Amino acid sequence: MATWPKIKPCLKKGDALYFSHGFSIVYKEQTNVVPPPEVDVILVAPKGSGASVRKNFLDGSGINSSYAVFQDATGRALERTLAIGIAIGSGYLFPTTFQQESIRTSPASAAC
């Protein structure tokens, strides 16, 4: 991940690191994305393209999204995650994990 070296030094204790997919965390050996222990690491993954998310948000209908907490440094990671899901207009939020999110949508799983 080309931007990770620029992002990591900017993170402060109590920050939240938000992902819309689990790849960077799950495949940390390849991406070198290892968040510091003092930040929340959260995910909200809309089940549609950015254009669909925006269109459904404007229509007021929302789009389903999965959510996960990988690291809860503040004790508020779940609250923050659900707030993001609501803020982007998710019609329904369902729990997952970073690992399940990566497997569910990986190119290898689509070929099976």
SSE diagram, text form:
Blueprint: H1 4-7, E1 16-19, H2 23-26, H3 28-31, E2 40-46, H4 50-59, E3 63-71, H5 77-87, E4 90-95, H6 98-105, H7 107-111
Parallel strand pairs: 1-2, 3-4
Antiparallel strand pairs: 2-3
SS-derived structural category? alpha/beta
What is the radius of gyration? 14 Å
List how many beta strands DSSP finds: 4
Shape: globular
Strand residue content: 15-25%
Mean pLDDT: 88
State the major sheet: 4 strands, mixed
Helix content: 40-55%
Terminal CA distance: 27 Å
Instruction: Please give the count of helices.
Output: 7
Listing every helix as H and every strand as E from the N terminus to the C terminus, the arrangement reads: HEHHEHEHEHH
In order across it, which strands form the biggest sheet? 1-2-3-4
- Poorly predicted runs are 106-112
